[in-house]
Batch of 2 targets.
Target 1
Amino acid sequence: MRAFREAVEAGDADAIEALLAEDVVFTSPAVYKPYAGKAITAAILRGVMRVFEDFRYVREINDPGGRDHALVFTTRVGDREITGCDFLRVNEDGLIEDFMVMVRPLSGAQALAAAMGAQFEQIAKEAEARSA
């Protein structure tokens, strides 16, 4: 998903949001229940952009002619190095309808969960403002 990758690498939160379907489902590596909807997903991704440091995609895996894509990344949260993957599924309009993130190692996932937990009040406010 070239457009998504380019938007992330440019730090363009508005372009990222434009690529999300209204009914997108976001599955976090740190929370059991998925989040449904464009507003909350966009707000979460903005939060991620605030906590990830030295983020870069290192590999892209695509289903030729298909709707499934995987973007492998490396980043840092505090002093924890993280390797992860964004699994994306696009709908018939080319918008992301399913977005699942997986990260490793466990200590990195824990650092990410703590950092995102600290962001959640702001994330909730942003999602509410975008839903209105």
Target 2
Amino acid sequence: MRDLGRTRRRMRAMVRELALPRMSTVEELCAAVADRAGRPVRLVPRRMRLGEPSGFVERRADADLIYFEQETSGLHQAHIICHELAHLLCGHLAEAPAVDEATAQVELPTLDADMIRLVLGRSHYDGAAETEAEILGAELTRTLVLAPGAGTTSQLAPALEHRKGQHV
């Protein structure tokens, strides 16, 4: 339990170091992480297959791609993205392998490229890394605007607001 408290404090400090304005959108959050990492972070909505996680990061030589389930609520998408950003911030991903000429020309037409990336990329972390990502992801989510406006998080407010006196 002490370790969990330490992890929470460390993750909160990491969010403070990002110095994000309270009105951050998911896109602004990605830009802040990209600035900190010195490499682009791109969001890729997609329909996940049965058995796939709801989100994952693919580290390419030129950018980090965050894939997230497109068939879910805006709030859930924001949570998924923040969790994957947390993996980036915590350094849980290995460096992308360099693409050399020989491997770039290998063709496997019967294998799905998305599935190859999933299998060769990250699909499971150890318990400590997942705990860090969950805590930091929740802290990052708290920095997001829960009000209408531009960007992905503009979809959060309708999911949380009251309608005709009833909780939605």
